[in-house]
Amino acid sequence: MSISEEQSTSQRFSLGLSWKLLATAMFVLIALPPFLDIPAFALVSMLVVVGGAQLMIATGLRRHRPTQPLPWYLISVSALLSALGTALREFSADTASPFDDLFTLAGYFGIGVAATLWLRPRQMRGNYDLLLDSALIGLGALLASWTFLISPILEVGAATTSTVAAAVYPVLDALLLTLVAHSMATSTRSETSLRLLHLSLFAVLVGDLGYSLDTVGTASIGHEVLVTPLLIGYATVGVAALHPTMTTIGGPRRIHPHHSRQRASFIAVALIVASLVPVVGSSLGTVDRVVVSSLFALLLIGVLVRSERAIQRSGRSERRAQYQADHDMLTGLLNRSALLRALNRNSEYWAGQPLCLLFIDLDGFKGVNDSYGHAVGDELIANAASRIRRVVRRDDVVARYGGDEFVVLAPLGRQEAAMLAERLLGAFVRPFELSAGEVPITTSVGIACTGPRTADASIYDLIREADSAMYHAKEYALGYAFHEDVRHGVTPPSTWKTQSHRAAPAPADTGRRTWHPVDRTTSTAV
Predict the structure, then answer these.
(1) Greatest CA separation for the chain
(2) Which of 69, 351, 378, 479 could lock 497 by a disulfide, CB 3.0 to 4.6 Å apart?
(3) Residues paired with 438 in a beta bridge
(4) Between 481 and 270, residue with greater pLDDT
(5) Residue 262: its pLDDT value, please?
(6) What distance in Å separates the CA atoms of residue 314 and residue 299, rounded to the nearest whole number?
(7) 84 Cβ contact list (under 8 Å, min separation 6)
(8) What does residue 361 show for φ and ψ, rounded to 5 degrees?
(9) Of 302, 316, 273, which Cα lies nearest the Cα of 133?
(10) What is the pLDDT of residue 253?
């Protein structure tokens, strides 16, 4: 390592150590005022903590240079305004009361705008479950705030500006909690800076709750204790700005909403609080009852909507899982297990009808796989499945049995099955246009038929018989063969494949590579 690199490393280490010492000093200053009970020392501690947080934010912006710095500027200004309002409220005369509320409310507004800016790129189009859950959490918080904080504040205080402001703070806290819940659901463990911001906002909410309880008279809390959560919030914001992940705030990011169970737990708590309202609010006035009833109704409607969406989402997941269990993912056809259940699944449709099973196998498929690879082989399988699907009727069962084998199950007689087999063979006369070139492929079809289906009929027997007939058709290049003919030793005087190859025109010269299979079969008259 060179001398310059050693000096740079030493500077980076000393810079990190200095910030650690500053953060430690800030948290020590935060912890001392509640024990010393000296207003002047508490004021100095606030000035040092807020100033240190501002310095940390400025350093983080200069060091990491985020692509979206506006949220951090708003957070810095909001922290400064909120601290100024707190200082005026705690360490000045009562005549400054309108100004302390004005500065504090301006800080709330800046935090709300900053949270909206960093949450905007984290929205998912068409997915409103997260927004609904966040709104329900906010409604639950607002319902509790009105019952335990807002209504008592309006009752004990005179109709002054300070009383109205004190009643507004719980409403703003409920909105802030909604934003924090939404942000937490879209954050990841790697976003340390954002998690620290969540912690700082929770500290602010705790501090505001203490102020509201003190205003109502529910709890008598010293001013030095009330300021402590706010100072923790300011210091945590500064630490968050120094972390390298501060650059992710406000930038675009792929979001996968999570913590669904945690959100449901918060909603359950909100419902429990709502159930306590009739007991606690027995002495509420008419206006209070109208407000509480409206919030309660909105909360219940939201829960019902959430339940309905959860049921729909569960139904979609169940249908998707069932589709994946019954279908081959490459071709979209039924798979083997679904084929084996086809007769029992729709027994009324098959009852009383003749039944034929056509077993289809591609000739020379192994040569395509060996020559071009499995990717081209999969492409050929998918195209072959598409041609088969276009030939059969809509109600016929088509399945990929495995590898290059397909099965068609249809309520047909012998003559209709022969016509279907000829159409299937005709679908493979034209070569396949694949990514590797033009590939001609033929197929062999084995057919097994039975009379009107009874309870004793088995699809396993039809598959076994059709498979045997298919191998006979492949061995003698017949194109297709019936198991009944094979069993009685009956073979047609001429073969479909021989006639089709004579009738098929030679492929035009397109300049693309054409694969020609080697015919290893021997046409033998029996």
Answers:
(1) 116
(2) 479
(3) 433, 514
(4) 481
(5) 61
(6) 22
(7) 103
(8) -135, 135
(9) 302
(10) 67
Residues 6+ positions from 18 with CB-CB distance below 8 Å: none
Instruction: Tell me: pLDDT of 13 over 60.
Output: no
CB-based contact 238:83 (threshold 8 Å): no
pLDDT digits (tens, 9 = 90+) for 155-168: 765 667 777 888 88
Tokens of 55: 């310095």
Q: What percent of the chain has pLDDT over 90?
A: 21
* SS3 at position 328: coil
Q: How far apart are CA 291 and CA 377, in angstroms?
A: 67
**Encoded tokens for 219:** 């709890």
Structure tokens at 402: 């495995």
Cβ neighbours of residue 59 closer than 8 Å, sequence gap 6 or more: 19, 241, 242
* 499 C-beta neighbours (distance < 10 Å), count: 11
**How many other β-carbons are positioned within 10 Å of the β-carbon of residue 281?**
17
CB-CB neighbours of 181 under 10 Å: 22
Query: What does the block give as tokens for 389?
Result: 């699907």
pLDDT in tens, 496-518: 444 444 344 434 444 444 444 44
**Residue 407, Ramachandran bin (φ over 0: left; ψ between -120 and 50: alpha; else beta):** beta
Rounded-to-integer distance, Cα 476 and Cα 495, Å? 8
In angstroms, the CA 493 to CA 491 distance is 6
Sheet holding 442-450, edge to edge: 397-402, 405-410, 355-363, 442-450, 480-482
> What residue spans of 397-458 are helical by DSSP H?
414-427
